[in-house]
Amino acid sequence: MKKLLFVIALMTFTVFAADAQQRKGRKEMSPDKMAERITDKMTEELDLDEAQQKEVYELNLKSSEERMEAREKAKEEQEANREQMKADQEAQEKALQEILTPEQLEKWKEYQKESMDNRRGRRGRGPGRPGGEK
């Protein structure tokens, strides 16, 4: 049971790390720019008059700022979760040191390393990706 929980925690951490790497490449747009872009598109598509444009811009700006705040809050929570998972992992490792013999502990660490290497080797492969199925 402990092994299963550890593997689940490790996999969760890996997913968070992969997601963070994907987001790193994107440029963050300011709430002003987002609101302007959306308002321009709505003006073009809906033929808004000046009064409507102003109201729609204010609404879009407010929504963009709220989304940005929510993203920042989620980012902070994600960091806190990551730190908690790391602390849990360290506590589990310490507990394992008390339970397992030094040989068993070494064997377990080697198994974890191989497992991680195997997962890293599979990253990026899948449908539509180089090395993956088509």
From TrEMBL:
**Region feature Disordered, mapped onto this chain:** 61-134
Q: Which domain of life is it from?
A: Bacteria
Q: Where is the composition biased (Basic and acidic residues)?
A: 61-96, 104-119
The protein's UniProt keywords, in alphabetical order, are:
Signal
Tell me the leader sequence span.
Answer: 1-17
Signal as UniProt keyword: yes
Q: What is this protein called?
A: DUF4890 domain-containing protein
